[in-house]
Amino acid sequence: MRHYGRFSWVNTRLGFVLLLVALVWAKTQLANIMDFNLYSGASPVQYVTMLLNPLTVSTLLIGLAFYFRSAKLFYPVATILYVVNVLMIQLNVIYYREFTDFMSVATMLGYNKVNQGLGASGFALTNIHDIFFWIDVPIIIGLFIFKKMRIQKEGTTKFMSFAMTTFSIFAFMVTLTLGEADRPQLITRQFDSSMMVKYLGIDAYTAFDAIKTHGVSEMRKSAKKSDIDNVLSYVKGHFADSNPQYAGIAKGKNVFVIHLESFQQFSLNLKINGQEVTPNLNAIYNSNSTIAFDNFFNQVGQGKTSDAENMLETSTFGLPQGSLFATQGNDQTFQAMPAILRQTQGYSSAVFHGNNASFWNRSNVYKNMGYQYFFDASYYDTSGDKAMGYGLKDKLLFYDSIPYLEHMQQPFYAKYITVTNHFPYSLDEQDKDPNFVTTTTDSDVVNGYFETNHYLDQSIGEFYDYLKKSGLYDKSIIVLYGDHYGISNSENKSLASVLGKSADDWTDFDNAQMQRVPFMVNIPGYTGGGINHTYGGEIDVMPTLLHLLGVDTKNDVQLGQDLLSTKRDQVVAFRDKDFITPKYTVIGETIYDNTTGQVISDPSKQVQKEVAAARKKVNKQLSISDDINQKDLLRFYTPKGFSKVDASKYNYANGLGKLENLENQKGVGSTSLWTENDNKTTQSLYTTDAPEKDEPRSDTSRIKQVNPDGGDSTDGGDDTPNP
User: Fold this and answer.
1) Of the residues 305, 382, 438, 439, which is catalytic?
2) Residue 386's pLDDT is what?
3) Could you give the angle at the alpha carbon of 330 between the alpha carbons of 328 and 336, nearest 5°?
């Protein structure tokens, strides 16, 4: 037997497993300190559990190799299980840098529906210290190849495998006991993912999340028709009637909804180096024809843009974990905005988005929502540098949408999903405004953010110019809102100086205030607008907008409230159960005074009462939403006058052919812009400075073009109009 001095222990099977477990422990601590910041503000018990929990499940998993007595199986199995552990850490690190959260099983299961475009951001989210997650793997393999580490051919005893399993279970029970003692009902109540990881570790969190995901599936199967009664009771008691001052003021007008990707409220009216970041959006925001809100918050979870869309279209929240679109969108029952406007006001509807149709499972979700048309990436030239990682650049999206938009029957409901202002906020040099100089912070993310903000703003300005020239502007309302935060909490301290704040004094209160995003309803010809200070969030967009359009929502299942109603309560729930009111910001158990930004360390009985009442409302609203979506309860209730959407009747191929066929069917009764313009295009009215506009189509593209319905605008397929 050969020995190598003090390191001879690694030449045994036990030594090899202990080495791998030690490496998992070290890498977990690296992630906890450098990326997750879990030790910051941790309690003494949490310090202990975080030191122990990497040893529990990793020992159990890697120790499974002891059940394989053959060396040809033991070493590969142990190595593979080790790599799986490290991969789980790495993926969570990358995910956390973007979402400030840990990966749920629902997110993993829906990865094939969300991966388009994640390559660019995933690369940008890597850090120099990430090399330490993987540098040992080739070293270990090399040591075996060059026989610097010996393979122990003799198998271990059955006792060894049993002992390893028993030890890992015991160690896990210790951490679980400590966690339950420090935070009672840790498992049963399923606190936020950060708490679960602090006490139990990433592996255990993932396992418990898998159990919970399975439970949701079973919940849906066991749901009963009577379960909707509790929902209807809540909706009736929570309903806020429309304000007569605003009700129906936009009735019959076309509706443009523009998702301002990753755009936050602080960018409005902001100047950098003496220049406005978003002059066009500023003009809209400050116009007396715009009803704008400056205390409007994003309320997304892990679904981000898809969560924002879900709230906009259905006035229900996204899921506690994962994306509703990705995990349940194939057969979910929606009572959504496009179907409601179609059935009550005769609106046509379409989505314009420069990524492929299956991204976030949109091609299925939109059909279930009743969207008639979906003009995805397959309808545009996305070749060469016309697209970024998440789709067609914004200036080109608006410009290239005109051949489809002008054939839509009016009134219409048209949603544009912009993508250029998306993490990692990189912009081709040719697309940068040479007259705009961005910030010089220590964060490339922050510096790039304002450049892509500016680009997005320019694209909005060009689109507005077209709307005015074509005549659509005066017949429409334009809804603009930020779908979610752009700068994550991990980058906020780098942003602080730009906003005139100190990074040293930055707190969770500041992080919460940064969740403000724009929400403005621009109504050309209206003069009663202004900036409204009402507190609200994305869950409130649908009832607000429908009331402006003159739609009665009393019988609809909507969990938000009309922001213009005199009866709304102004409690804004975040998806993780934190919340904000006009007086308080509540993060976990910590109460902040909105006026001072300081912690209320000794709240009075009155403050405690107010916070408790608000917390009760938040928990109830989120609970009702989860019941609706996780159990698919709307299959048991159809409002009077509403017909359930039949998704099987929708096909998103050959959208232009369908629109042209409908025009021909209607003849002189057609209300499309094309018909109004004597059957001529309005494309020449659109002016853009996008340098890629006239570039010829090439054989390369930064994104895939995959339409699940198998077609595009020129495929010559079925041109039967969608219902």
Assistant:
1) 305
2) 96
3) 85
